[in-house]
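Input structure tokens:
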């Protein structure tokens, strides 16, 4: 069995900015698990555990996707829920382009028995996971508000294997599918 997901990688300058944000966030009293900046990405589709024999069919289906490249603007850093926050993330703005790509990925994978996500897609970059919340987190977030900015060029999407380890996940690129200059 292999654990798979589809993602868009980040440019190095944004990874560095998010690493600086993590330093500020770690000064608060909330217990956080930081995402390694080298592992940060925009998840388009979490596929989950599949048989290794399904891998070639998944790759073949993803290779057939034709979608124009687009850009994604990095927005404000916040939490997934103000009532019960579990994730610190950077919001993203792309005028629905990533959602359009997600729909194509879902359509391509559905004949293989991989069901579309039922929840509405919200593009974001996970910066940290909250293990134990503390109100001081909101002060830390106010301190980093607007500290990250940039544009992510979505010129390809990548099928990644995720291996969970005690020290964090290890991601391996399986397939990169270029996005087209026009459709």
């Amino acid at each position: 069995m292999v654990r798979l997901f589809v993602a868009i990688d980040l440019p190095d300058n944004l990874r560095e900015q998010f690493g600086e944000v993590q330093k500020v966030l770690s000064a608060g009293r909330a217990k956080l698990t930081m995402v390694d900046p080298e592992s940060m990405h925009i998840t388009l589709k979490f596929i989950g555990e599949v048989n290794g024999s399904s891998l070639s069919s998944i790759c073949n289906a993803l290779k057939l996707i034709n979608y124009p490249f687009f850009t994604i603007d990095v927005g404000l850093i916040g939490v997934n829920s103000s009532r019960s926050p579990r994730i610190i993330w950077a919001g993203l703005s792309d005028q629905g382009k990533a959602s359009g790509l997600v729909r194509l990925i879902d359509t391509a994978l559905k004949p293989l028995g991989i069901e579309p996500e039922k929840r509405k897609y919200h593009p974001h970059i996970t910066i940290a996971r909250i293990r134990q919340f503390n109100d001081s987190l909101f002060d830390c977030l106010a301190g980093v508000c607007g500290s990250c900015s940039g544009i992510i060029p979505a010129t390809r999407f990548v099928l990644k294997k995720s291996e969970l380890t005690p020290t964090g996940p290890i991601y391996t690129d399986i397939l990169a599918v270029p996005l087209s200059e026009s459709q």
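The beta strands are 2-9, 31-34, 41-50, 70-79, 87-93, 124-132, 151-154, 156-163, 170-178. The chain has one domain: 2-178.
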